[in-house]
Amino acid sequence: MKKVLILLIIFLILPPIKTNFLIRSNYMYEKIIEGIHKYYNNTCILLIHAIKEPVEPKVGIETYTRLKDLQLHFSRLNIRTAVMDIATFILKIGGSYYHIKRPLFVLLNDSEDLRHQFSTLIAPSIDMAYPTWLIFFRDQTSIDDFFRDIYVPFDCTFLVSKENFDLEFEAEIITEVYQVYRGLELRREIFATWNIVDGIVYPKLSLYQRRSNLYGHTLRVISIEDPPSSMIVRDKDNRVMGLNGFFGGIMELLQESMNCTLIYESTDEWGYLLNNGTWTGAINSLIINKSDIFAAELLMTTERLDALKFTTPLYSTKCRTFIKRPATSVLSWDKYITPFADDIWSALGVIILISSAFIKIIKSVAAVITFQDAQNDRVDSKFWDVVFSVFGALCSQGMELSTINPIRIVQFSIHLTGVVVLAAYSAALISSLAVKIFVMPFTTMEGLLKDRTYRFGVVGESADFTFFQNTSDPVMSVLFDDVLVKETDLPLNYLEGLSRVCSESKYAFMALDAAVSQLKSSVDCILVPLDTISQTSIGMALTPDSPFRGIINNNILLLRDSGILNKLLNSDWALPGDNTQDAWSTVEIQDILPLIVVLIVSSCTSIVFLCSERLIHIKMAHNRRKKNVNLIKGVKFPMNDEKLFKGYFK
Question: How confident is the model at residue 6 (pLDDT cuts 50, 70, 90)?
C-alpha cells in the first residue's frame, strides 16, 4: 500500500503530459468496443487513460471533444460509460471494483506513461481476471515489450487491438494474451478481426476450448488417506508417487486433458479454522501456496468457501450419523395372518362352509336319485368331516375323488381356488419374512443425545468437527459439548470411523452417504443411518488466487456430460477385494418363532386330547365291565356252567 501511495504522489506532482492519446478514429473505437461489449455482455464500459484531467489546455480541445463524444455514443446505446484516468481510478474505485459487475476496461492507447502506470498501479492491486480488458496498440508497439512487467493470468481476458495493414481498407486484428503462470512465456492467439466492410468476426470456440493446454505446467496436488475416495500410492522408500481411488481417477483424466504435470504430496490433517483465524492441515497448505489442488472428499462449507476457491461440485450427498444395526429384528406375532386382510379371511371361511354344504347336499340328493352311486362314493358323509377335507384342499392337500360328477365340479373349484390363494399367501408371506424391521434405540440426533449410552465421533480436524463446533443448532451444540469433546482419539477417515461403529457395541459416527455406500462392503456389520443432518456438495479445493479454476471446471463438466464422472462414482470407486455382491436376506429363528409356537401348542394340545380320549375310553370301558358284572351277578348259573362263568371274566 505504501508503494502505491508513493507512486501516486509522484504521479500527481508530475507536470502534465501533452499528447494525443486517442490513436484511432472515433468510428473505429466505437465499433470495436461495441463488438467486444456485445460478445462478453458487459454491464458497463470504463475508458481509461493516463493523463489526469484531460481538458483543453493539456490535450487540446479536439481530443477532449472526441473523448466526450465517445462517452456520449455509448451512453446513447444505454451502456453505462465513464471516462477516468488511472490515478482517479485508484483513488475513487480501488478495491471496490468488485462492486462493478462484468466491467469492460478499455485502455485507449499504448503510451509509455500508460504502460508504466498500469504495471505499477493497477495490475498489482486488482484481480486481473475479474474485468474484460481491451487495449489499442500502434503498429510499432511490441506486445512482448508492453507486457514485460505485467502478469496476465491464465484466466484473464486481455485483448490487444492492432491495425491490419494487409487490407486496403481500415481493419484490426484483435489478439488475446495470457500466461500459463507468473514468470512464464506470454502466449497470444488471434481472438477476432474487424474491418469496415464486414464488421467484427467473433471466435467460434469458447475461452477454455481456446486455452485447453497448460503446456506441461506442474501442479502440486495434496491429498489425504481416505479410502476409497483417495488412497495415497507410495514407493518402497515411502515416498508419495501418486493417488488412487475416485479422486486419483479424476486427477489422471485432468492431467491428460489439460496437458499438465502432477506431483503429489500427502497430509494427515484435513484442516479446520482455529479461533485466531488461521487454518491447519491441507487447507493451510493451499492458503500459503505450498500446494495447488486439494484432491479429496472435501465438504464445501461456508468457512472454506471464504478462504479458498472450489471446483464445481463433483457430486452432492447427505451427511448423516450411522450406528450398528441391532442383532435382532422385531418379533411380529401376526406375520402369518397379515398377508390377507380380515375380509379375505372371512371370505375363505364362507367359501369353506358353502363348499362343504354343497357337497353334503349333492351327496344327499344323489343318495335319493342314484342310491348305488351314492353308496359307493368315498367322500365323507359327515358335515364336519367334509369341512376339514375342504380346508385341507385349500392348503394343497388331496381330497377323496368323488364318483358323483356334480361333487367333482365342486372339488375342482376348491382346488383351483386353493392354488390361487396359496400362491398369493406364499408371496406375501415371503415378502414379509424378507423385509425385516429392527428395533432401533433412536432415529434422530436428539434421540442419540437423550440416550447417553452411545459414544459419538467424526473425522478429526475436519469440516465435520468444525460443523459441530460452530453450529447454532441447540441439539448439535450440546452433543458437541457433552459428547464429542470427550473423544480424544477421533478417526482419521471414514473407513476408520465406520470400523469403530462395527467393532464397538455403542458407537455412532457421522459420515457422508456417498462414502458409506462404497465402504459398507469393507466393514463387518450392517450400518443404519439416522435422520439427515444436512445436504452437502463435494468438490476439490484450489488456492485462493488460482487461475486454473475455469479450465478445471470446464473439464469436470465435460466428464460429467460424457458420463465418465458417473462411471467413476458408480464402478471405479471401490476398495481392492471388496465384496460387491449383495448379501442374502436370511430368515432368522425369531421370524418363524410364531409358527414354532403354534406347532408346539397344537402338538401339546393334540397330546392332551389324545390322553384325555384315552383316559375317557378306559374309564368308559371300565364302567361297562362293572355294569356287566353287576348284571351277571344277578343271574344264577347251574353248577355245571361254573367254568363258563369263570372264563367270561378272564
Answer: very low
C-alpha to C-alpha distance for 420 and 394, rounded to whole angstroms: 9
> Could you tell me if 297 and 247 are in contact, meaning their C-beta atoms sit under 8 angstroms apart?
yes
Alpha-carbon distance of 592 to 601, in angstroms, equals 14
Name the more confident of 503 and 327: 503
Classify strands 261-267 and 218-224 as parallel, antiparallel or unpaired. Answer: parallel
Euclidean distance between CA atoms 52 and 17, whole angstroms: 9
Please state which of the ranges 17-26, 72-81, 288-297, 551-560 shows the lowest mean pLDDT. Answer: 17-26
Q: Tell me the whole-structure pTM to 2 decimals.
A: 0.72
In whole angstroms, how large is the CA radius of gyration of the chain?
45
d(CA 290, CA 221): 10
Beta sheet of 103-107, edge-to-edge order = 80-85, 44-49, 103-107, 132-136, 157-163, 171-179, 186-195, 199-201
Opening angle at CA 247, ends 246 and 253, nearest 5:
95
User: Distance of alpha carbon 545 from its chain centroid, rounded?
Assistant: 28
The conformation of residue 91, written as its DSSP 8-state character, comes to I
Residue with cell 424378507: 434
Tell which residue, 256, 261, 211, 591, has the closest CA to residue 429: 591
CA of residue 50 relative to chain centroid, distance: 53
Does residue 616 sit in helix, strand or coil?
Answer: helix
What is the identity of the amino acid at 480?
Answer: F
pLDDT score for 194? 94
DSSP annotation of 215: T
pLDDT at 215 over 80: yes
CB atoms within 10 A of CB 198: 9
Return the amino acid letter for 417.
Answer: T
Largest CA distance in the chain: 175
Q: Phi and psi (nearest 5°) for 244?
A: -110, 180
Rounded Cα–Cα distance for residues 615 and 442 (Å):
55
Side chain identity, residue 146:
F
Q: 580: Cβ–Cβ under 8 A, 6 or more apart, which residues?
A: 521, 574
Contacts of 174 (CB under 8 A, 6+ apart): 32, 36, 159, 160, 161, 190, 191, 192, 193, 194, 200
User: Quick check: 46 and 6 in contact, CB under 8 A?
Assistant: no
Question: What is d(CA 560, CA 379) in angstroms, rounded to the nearest whole number?
Answer: 73
pLDDT band for 46, please (50, 70, 90 cuts): very high
Whether residue 542 contacts residue 222, with contact meaning beta carbons closer than 8 Å, is answered with: no
d(CA 59, CA 19): 6
Interacting residues of 142 by C-beta distance below 8 A, sequence separation 6+:
none
Least Cα distance to 598 among 329, 340, 336 occurs for 336
Name the average pLDDT for the chain: 83
Helices (H), 230-382: 245-258, 281-287, 302-307, 342-369, 371-376
Phi and psi at 193, nearest 5°, equal -130, 155
Closest by CA position to 247, among listed 517, 501, 476, 556 = 556
Say whether pLDDT at 465 is over 80.
yes
State the Cα–Cα distance between residues 308 and 286, nearest whole angstrom: 8
Residue 517's pLDDT is 85
Rounded Cα distance between 36 and 19, Å, is 27
SS3 content of the chain, % helix, strand, coil (to 5): 45, 20, 35
| pLDDT mean over 507-528 | 88
DSSP 505: S
- Decide if pLDDT at 572 tops 60: no
465 grid coordinates: 468437527
Phi/psi at 458 (5° precision): -135, 175
* The C-alpha cell that represents 417 in the structure block: 381356488
